[in-house]
Design a protein that fits this description.
This protein has 13 helices and 11 strands. It has helices at about 5-10, 20-30, 55, 90-95, 100-110, 135-140, 180-195, 195-220, 225-250, 290-305, 335-340, 345-370, 430-440, and strands spanning about 40-45, 80-90, 150-155, 170, 175, 315, 375, 375-380, 385-390, 405, 420-425. The strands form 3 sheets. Strands 3-6-1-9-10-2-11 form a 7-stranded mixed β-sheet, sandwiched between helices. A hairpin with a 2-residue loop joins strand 7 and strand 8. Helix 10 runs parallel beside helix 12. The radius of gyration is 23 Å and the shape is globular. The relative contact order is 0.20.
């Protein structure tokens, strides 16, 4: 390969830089085996509130059979892509004071206690998280080469409070999610489609890749055996990237969704400063009729943003912590939060319907990711989904045995298709450490969040 082409790679020719390790080995005559070409990893965090019904989320809790309960039943077609994780405790929340919903939510992705702040529901410690959340921690590394370092969305949102912010860029630095799918679409896709500078950059990258592809083909002809197969694999990957760049250079991202027809709920629908309803929604089923369409639109935007490589980290807060969404479309006529405080006999049937509906949305997302080809597989192969909650059981406000689920293998890093039962009292911070590690982002001191609540990544999950 010419010195010019190598300099081009070193200057950062977009996604082409993946070819350097292999080419360097071949050109130096190294006997080391080069890693197979890899597509970028993506992380998606999905939050749903108010705890769960453990028996129906974890199912029979049998590691040998891995049978899904009523809540996760919609995910049966994707069972081999799942990791259902049992016995994880949000210890930072257990040791904190404050409203249990807000504390659980604020500690959920950071694994850190809350800063001292305004009182929440008459309780102290209503401030923001004292540390960065795992999605932002990952985005700080893998989001450097994309248009958006991360994308935060909300199915229903309220004015900023500890009940409505789960992502933190640092201590006391909440990240506000976008609740309007139309506004989110404009932010994600408009500049990609219409920005002349971006268009020129894609054209330049395409021309560079075309030259690289030709030289890889020429190099392949001079080799034999395993080295030839390696070079041919890289050449095929380069041509795939080139094809996608050419499609984008034509003026649009071919996998971008249509602009949503639904918009988010209006701020007037909420009373965030009502002292009797501090930071929570007003219960009104009429306000929630567009909720299913908003959730679907946001999920479509995530798939489009991932497939166009506009971002590699995204999150969706389906509804704020302590949500009062009324899911009439799921056969429920009481607000989610009110129902979570009923006795088991009264509230359980409705709560199962609510969480089953949320599982249907996750199943829709996984199916959509599987519908987008990537290399020899699909987008789901290189994606990691984290489904999380701020509580274990809603009517007792517990932070033990909190429901967590992973979907996708993060590029083959995780061994999926399992229910995994950890020892009672396992720190959920260990899960956050696992997420960072699975995404290829180094940990500091093999820990994430408060080191008092982390002993390292969860064991036994890797492939």
């Amino acid at each position: 390969m010419s010195r010019y082409s190598r300099r081009t790679f070193l200057r950062g020719a977009g996604g082409a830089s993946f070819a350097l390790p292999l080419l360097s080995d071949v050109l130096r005559g190294s006997t080391a085996r080069a890693a197979a070409p890899a597509f970028p990893k993506r992380l998606f965090v999905f939050f749903t509130p108010n705890g769960t019904i453990p028996a129906e989320f974890f199912g029979p809790a049998d590691q040998s059979t891995f049978t899904l309960g009523q809540i996760l039943a919609p995910l049966e077609p994707h069972k081999n892509d799942l990791l259902v994780l049992d016995n994880l405790d949000n210890k930072a929340s257990i040791d904190a004071s404050g409203d249990p919903h807000g504390v659980g939510f604020g500690c959920m992705l950071s694994g850190m206690k809350l800063l001292t702040g305004a009182a929440a529901m008459g309780m102290t410690s209503g401030g923001w998280s004292s540390g960065i959340s795992v999605d932002q921690y990952v985005a700080n590394t893998i989001g450097k080469s994309t248009k958006l370092a991360s994308l935060e969305l909300a199915g229903k949102n309220i004015a900023g409070s500890v009940f409505s912010r789960m992502s933190f860029s640092g201590p006391g630095q909440p990240v506000s999610p976008e609740a309007d799918p139309q506004a989110a679409f404009d932010r994600i896709f408009a500049s990609v489609m219409n920005d002349p500078a971006s268009l020129r950059r894609r054209v330049l990258q395409t021309s560079i890749l075309d030259e690289v592809s030709k030289q890889l083909d020429g190099l392949s002809a001079t080799l034999s055996g395993a080295d030839q197969m390696k070079v041919q694999a890289h050449a095929a990957y380069v041509r795939d990237i080139e094809t996608r760049l050419q499609a984008n250079a034509a003026g649009s991202c071919t996998t971008a969704p249509a602009r949503p027809t639904v918009s988010g709920s209006k701020p007037v629908d909420f009373m965030p400063y009502d002292p009797n309803n501090a930071g929570h929604e007003v219960i009104n089923a009429a306000d929630d009729v567009d909720f299913p369409g908003i959730i679907k639109a946001h999920l479509d935007l995530v798939v489009g943003a991932f497939s166009c490589d506009i971002t590699r980290v995204a999150s969706l807060m389906a509804a704020p912590s302590r949500s009062d969404v009324v899911m009439t479309w799921a056969g429920v006529n009481m607000s989610h939060h009110e129902m979570s405080h009923q006795s088991d006999a009264q509230g359980m049937p409705g709560l199962i319907k609510v969480d089953n509906w949320y599982a249907q949305q996750l199943a829709y997302l996984i199916s959509a990711l599987k519908a987008v080809p990537e290399g020899a597989g699909t987008l789901i192969d290189n994606t990691l989904i984290l489904w999380c909650n701020e509580l274990g059981i809603g009517n007792i406000h517990s932070h033990v045995r909190v429901p967590f689920l992973l979907a996708g293998s993060a590029g083959g890093y995780l061994k999926t298709g399992r229910y995994v039962k950890f020892p009672v009292g396992t720190f959920h911070n260990n899960l956050l450490a696992t997420v960072s590690q699975a995404m290829g982002v180094p940990l500091q001191n093999n820990s994430f969040g408060d080191p008092n609540y982390c002993t390292g990544p969860l064991p036994g999950l890797t492939a």
